[in-house]
Amino acid sequence: MLLEALATRLEGTRLSDLAREAGLAPSTTHRLLTTLERNGFAQFDPMRSKWHVGRKAFAVGVAFTNLQSFIAAALPLMRRLRDATKETANLGILEDGEVITVAQVGSREIIRAISAPGGRAPVMNSGMGKAIVATWPDDAIEALVARHGLRRLTRRSLRSMAAVREDIEAIRQRGYAYDDEEFTSGMRCVASVVWSATGEPLGGLSVSALAERLTVSDMPAMGERVRDLALELTHVMGGRVPPATGAR
């Protein structure tokens, strides 16, 4: 409520006006504003005795707008991917050692992969996560594993740094990643990275399916399809593929 009031008044707002609009005591309002200020979401102008929205709030707003644009651009391609493969298409981003699913176009099959937007998975148990971090330097990947560890969610989950290195090298060679029942037994996923305008990984695009429908022998062809759609989405977003990746 306080942030909304600050954001709609670029000229600033007095404490008494904010308290009245929020229906709070001035002392409570001041305490909340001080907390927002400490975290960069509000700032106080002592010359005019007015509160303004902080820079961090603007940054969060821009990030949200960028994410919404990413999803809007991806959805038509995700529907094409779902229709071509008959399986679930996913879009994800990386956040603090986890992949967050931000959009999904579900398979029309009765039994299908489901991960509602907002769902999370450890990076090294996720096809999208591994596709993204495979673009990182080796020391950054090792630091990520050192910080977050390796989750043994299934009998096929990666369990050592040596296994991680081998998998990452294969992903770099192929241009797409596998989750071979590493997050959920009986489910497989194939994923590739989407690039930003600065040549940094923007997120991941994937197809997930029951292991009985997405067999090991099917995964390379599926990977090429996903990689091509991720490259198309990169171009739609005005992204740039770094030359070192070998992608066109």
From TrEMBL:
<dbReference type="InterPro" id="IPR005471">
    <property type="entry name" value="Tscrpt_reg_IclR_N"/>
</dbReference>
<dbReference type="Pfam" id="PF09339">
    <property type="entry name" value="HTH_IclR"/>
</dbReference>
<keyword id="KW-0238">DNA-binding</keyword>
<dbReference type="InterPro" id="IPR036388">
    <property type="entry name" value="WH-like_DNA-bd_sf"/>
</dbReference>
<dbReference type="InterPro" id="IPR050707">
    <property type="entry name" value="HTH_MetabolicPath_Reg"/>
</dbReference>
<dbReference type="GO" id="GO:0045892">
    <property type="term" value="P:negative regulation of DNA-templated transcription"/>
</dbReference>
<keyword id="KW-0805">Transcription regulation</keyword>
<protein>
    <submittedName>
        <fullName>Transcriptional regulator</fullName>
    </submittedName>
</protein>
<dbReference type="InterPro" id="IPR014757">
    <property type="entry name" value="Tscrpt_reg_IclR_C"/>
</dbReference>
<feature type="domain" description="HTH iclR-type">
    <location>
        <begin position="1"/>
        <end position="55"/>
    </location>
</feature>
<feature type="domain" description="IclR-ED">
    <location>
        <begin position="56"/>
        <end position="239"/>
    </location>
</feature>
<dbReference type="Pfam" id="PF01614">
    <property type="entry name" value="IclR_C"/>
</dbReference>
<dbReference type="GO" id="GO:0003677">
    <property type="term" value="F:DNA binding"/>
</dbReference>
<dbReference type="GO" id="GO:0003700">
    <property type="term" value="F:DNA-binding transcription factor activity"/>
</dbReference>
<dbReference type="InterPro" id="IPR029016">
    <property type="entry name" value="GAF-like_dom_sf"/>
</dbReference>
<keyword id="KW-0804">Transcription</keyword>
<dbReference type="InterPro" id="IPR036390">
    <property type="entry name" value="WH_DNA-bd_sf"/>
</dbReference>
